[in-house]
Design brief:
This protein has 174 residues and is mainly α. Helices cover 75% and strands 0% of the residues. Helix 1 runs parallel beside helix 4 (90-116), helix 3 (64-87) packs antiparallel against helix 4 and helix 5 (120-142) packs antiparallel against helix 7 (153-172). It is elongated, with a radius of gyration of 17 Å.
Length: 174
Amino acid sequence: MSTEDNSVSDLAGGPSALTSLLYLFAFLAAVFLAAAAGGAVTATSVNDWYQLLEKPPLTPVPWVFPVVWNFLYFLMAIAAWLVWRTTGSFDRSGLPLAIFGCQLSLNLTWSILFFGLKSPTLASVEVIFLDIALIGTIASFARYSRLSAILLLPYLAWVLFATYLTIGIAVLNQ
């Protein structure tokens, strides 16, 4: 059995089930804390300024965004936890988790630029960096757990779609 197949089972010498569960909750808390911060910034202008913007074709109806994002944040936390769980320590999973933290920070930064500063143009530039960081996260996670990389693929698809929407809004509202 390969290391990645052991990522959710007890590893000899790995973290105990209780420790693993506590870290799972810690990863969920960290990711959803970033989500809550982004949501708080988004709430400042989503119901007024954003409604006045011209939007590109295929823009989803408003209720889709929080449903999709909550699902994706859940998958992100599970993916990060799987990498930690596979290695059994932050020493061995530090680089992929640092890249993960970088992309999570960029995710929050997008909300600040787009909704907080009301700057689709700045958000368009920033989302390209998010795309790159997310691809890097997936690549680094794949070295430790194929499942963790697969769990991030819906997030990548959505962020690429968000890239289209962000650039579309920037172009349409110059």
